[in-house]
């Protein structure tokens, strides 16, 4: 029975997480990059808008910009239907209206043809969709004119200069992690480069004599390596520079040499396996000999034998070998620290209440991150189905999950129908 209730010296999860954050440093080096390369990069300086957006009043519709001095703010439908306007010119996107004499404004009773996005003259006080007018030649003056088929509102369909972003406005603070639409926003401000923190360099290695890379034949007792594949994928989603160091044998000298090499190349070294108390578990021993162990063993399940420490130049995370334990400890403990080191603002994953559809087994002693499938019941309520296989070696179970069921350290399980806390998988693990 692997019951750790009576095992002393297990650090509570929240304390482990906060200890990690207070024992790592944020990188200071920054670089200028093209905005096309800025997705998921972390800002090293706030971004302030150099211009106002939109730069000019412009039309939200294809149609006609009119000047009707009887239109007023706050009144609706106050332009008489069948009112007529003399057509004096055209404003296209990128080519504003100019009269034959070079004027850019309208007189009362005049209109121009206008396209979506084209500059609206300051003197115009509404844009009319072309579907809502008829156009004809004035029989007396022979001028081209339009007739409004419906009343219009004051300033209808005009997008105003600066209504999106004011010049000088701080759009993003230091530590903001840019996403795809933000790149478009930066481009809309005319910014071609931004200053970001350089990428964090993270070395990943797996320890274990039994481990083989996919593609190699398995001898008796061997298994295919999976932890580093999970970690590398998550690090890539975090947009960090990964240094893959492969599989290291359960040999103290080999592990020592691998840790020293990793420390020379990376800001962070992450190993998995060999961190428990078995005869071939050298991770913690080597860490204490060539670096320091800040803490070892956390009161969480899966992932109890998690080690955190420092090497000469880098921070060290020793993850347990069981694949689910490695994935969960990386996600729950290492990721917040890595994000902080990379310069990113803290984020919290979404936690919700849900009804469990089946019994949840749990002994007091360690905080559980059970794996579940969140869904919406026929009645429209949030529910969670705990996955039947919660073993820390069962990868297929976490692969099917879309959330954690979070059970506090002293919690002793639940009956079907109870309300539990779930945490939705984020884009790093999910
Ligand atoms: N006497 C005790 N034994 C164990 C304890 C304990 O407290 N006392 N803790 C258990 C818990 S909890 C965990 S978690 C594991 C963690 O052990 P290690 O970190 O030393 O991991 P290993 O023994 O090296 O491997 C465990 C398991 O995982 C497989 N593995 C390892 N690396 C990989 C990899 N890269 N890819 C896929 N699978 C991997 C390995 O073959 C083992 O099956 O210790 C318990 N024991
Ligand atoms: O219970 Mo271990 O912590 O298997 O992951």
UniProtKB/TrEMBL annotation:
Keywords for this protein: Magnesium, Metal-binding, Molybdenum, Molybdenum cofactor biosynthesis, Transferase
Gene3D superfamilies linked to this entry: MoaB/Mog-like domain, MoeA, C-terminal, domain IV, Molybdopterin biosynthesis moea protein, domain 2, Molybdopterin biosynthesis moea protein, domain 3
Record GO biological process: Mo-molybdopterin cofactor biosynthetic process
Pathway annotation: Cofactor biosynthesis; molybdopterin biosynthesis
EC class of the enzyme, as a word: transferase
Entry's Gene Ontology molecular function annotations: metal ion binding; molybdopterin molybdotransferase activity
Substrates-to-products reaction catalysed: adenylyl-molybdopterin + molybdate = Mo-molybdopterin + AMP + H(+)
CDD domains according to UniProt: MoeA (cd00887)
Enzyme Commission identifier(s): 2.10.1.1
Cofactor: Mg(2+)
Domain MoaB/Mog: 203-340
Annotated Gene Ontology cellular component terms: cytosol
Protein origin, superkingdom: Bacteria
Job of this protein: Catalyzes the insertion of molybdate into adenylated molybdopterin with the concomitant release of AMP.
Sequence similarity: Belongs to the MoeA family.
Annotated protein name in UniProt: Molybdopterin molybdenumtransferase
Species of origin: Psychrosphaera saromensis
Lineage: Bacteria, Pseudomonadati, Pseudomonadota, Gammaproteobacteria, Alteromonadales
């Amino acid at each position: 029975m692997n019951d750790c209730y009576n095992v002393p010296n297990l650090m509570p999860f929240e304390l482990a997480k906060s200890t990690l954050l207070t024992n790592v440093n944020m990188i200071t080096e920054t670089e200028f990059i093209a905005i096309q390369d800025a997705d998921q990069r972390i800002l090293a300086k706030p971004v302030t808008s150099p211009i106002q957006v939109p730069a000019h009043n412009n039309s939200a519709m294809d149609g006609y910009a009119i000047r009707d001095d009887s239109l007023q703010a706050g009144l609706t439908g106050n332009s008489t239907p069948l009112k007529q306007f003399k057509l004096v010119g055209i404003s296209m996107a990128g080519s504003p209206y100019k009269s034959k004499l070079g004027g850019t404004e309208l007189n009362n009773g005049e209109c121009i043809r206008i396209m979506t996005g084209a500059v609206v003259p300051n003197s115009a006080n509404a844009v009319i969709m072309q579907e809502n007018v008829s156009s004809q030649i004035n029989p007396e003056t022979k001028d081209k004119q339009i007739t409004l088929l419906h009343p219009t509102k004051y300033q209808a369909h005009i997008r105003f200069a600066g209504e999106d972003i004011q010049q000088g406005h701080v759009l993003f603070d230091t530590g903001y992690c840019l996403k795809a639409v933000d790149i478009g926003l930066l481009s809309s401000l005319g910014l071609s480069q931004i200053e970001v923190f350089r990428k964090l360099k993270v070395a990943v290695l797996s320890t274990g004599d039994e481990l083989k890379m996919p593609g190699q034949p398995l001898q008796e007792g061997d298994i295919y390596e999976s932890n580093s594949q999970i970690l590398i994928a998550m690090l890539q989603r975090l947009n960090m520079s990964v240094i893959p160091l492969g599989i290291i044998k359960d040999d103290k000298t080999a592990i020592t040499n691998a840790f020293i090499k990793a420390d020379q190349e990376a800001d962070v070294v992450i190993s998995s396996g060999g961190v428990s108390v078995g005869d071939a578990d050298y991770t913690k021993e080597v860490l204490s000999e060539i670096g320091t162990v800040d803490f070892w063993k956390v009161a969480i399940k899966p992932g109890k034998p998690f080690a955190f420490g420092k090497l000469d130049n880098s921070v060290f995370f020793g993850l347990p070998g069981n694949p689910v334990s490695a994935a969960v400890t990386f996600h729950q403990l290492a990721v917040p620290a890595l994000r902080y080191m990379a310069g990113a603002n803290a984020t919290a994953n979404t936690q919700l209440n849900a009804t469990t559809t089946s019994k949840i087994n749990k002994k007091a002693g360690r905080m559980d991150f059970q794996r579940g499938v969140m869904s919406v019941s026929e009645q429209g309520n949030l529910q969670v189905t705990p996955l039947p296989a919660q073993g820390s070696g069962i990868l297929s179970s976490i692969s099917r999950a879309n959330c954690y069921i979070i059970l506090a350290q002293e919690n002793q399980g639940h009956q079907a129908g109870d309300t539990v806390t779930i945490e939705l998988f984020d884009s790093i693990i999910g």
